[in-house]
Design goal:
By secondary structure, the chain is α/β, with parallel strands linked by helices. The chain is built from six helices and five strands; from the N terminus they run αβββαβαβααα.
Length: 189
């Protein structure tokens, strides 16, 4: 007695590497913001992260400091930070390591030009040699210079102390704005 089974054969679930590649293009890359809407995000990376956004006219639009309790929280927070920003053309980040790689991957995924640098890359553009003799002096000078950028940009002054990570993010962004052509020269600050 031969019986024919009407049941479907059991299929094993596909493993991730067995799945066909996604052929969908990244929608962000297809529709980059027009030049009149492109912003630059500057990041002084760490558990206490300084953030500064420059607008299409090369002026500082906003600045803040965000504290993350641990590295895993920082990794998760990067996507939220990027979703909350205006249309970005550039991310300039000071720092390195695994977290910088997370920022870079998020930027690539969104079609944003990513630049990674260190303090010795941007400080000579904005500070005299005597202002950068050591880290303590450079951070103090960064505070004064960042406050002048805030004033020149015509946005609200900090209510209290300006954290050094935020001050440095402001200056990283100013260096970036000059480098990408949002500003032709250093403003009169």
């Amino acid at each position: 007695d031969l019986r024919v089974s009407t049941r479907e054969p059991i299929r094993k679930p596909r493993k991730r590497e067995d799945r066909p590649p996604k052929d969908r293009p990244n929608p962000v890359r297809l529709n980059p913001p027009p030049p009149s809407q492109r912003h630059l995000l500057a990041v002084d990376m760490g558990l206490r992260t300084g953030l500064a956004i420059y607008g299409p006219d090369g002026r500082l639009v906003s600045y803040r400091s965000k504290h993350f309790a641990k590295i895993s929280e920082l990794r998760r927070g990067i996507g939220t930070i990027l979703r909350d920003t205006p249309p970005l053309a550039w991310i300039w980040l000071e720092g390195g390591g695994d977290i910088a790689t997370v920022w870079e991957k998020q930027a690539v995924h969104r079609g944003i030009d990513f630049r990674q640098l260190q303090a010795h890359d941007w400080r000579p553009t904005l500070m005299l040699p005597r202002q950068q003799r050591n880290g303590e002096i450079a951070k103090r000078e960064a505070d004064g210079l960042a406050r002048r950028v805030i004033e020149w940009s015509g946005i609200g002054r900090p209510k209290g102390d300006l954290r050094h990570d935020t001050a440095e993010a402001i200056l990283i962004g100013l260096h970036g704005a000059i480098s990408v052509g949002l500003l032709q020269d250093l403003p009169p600050i």
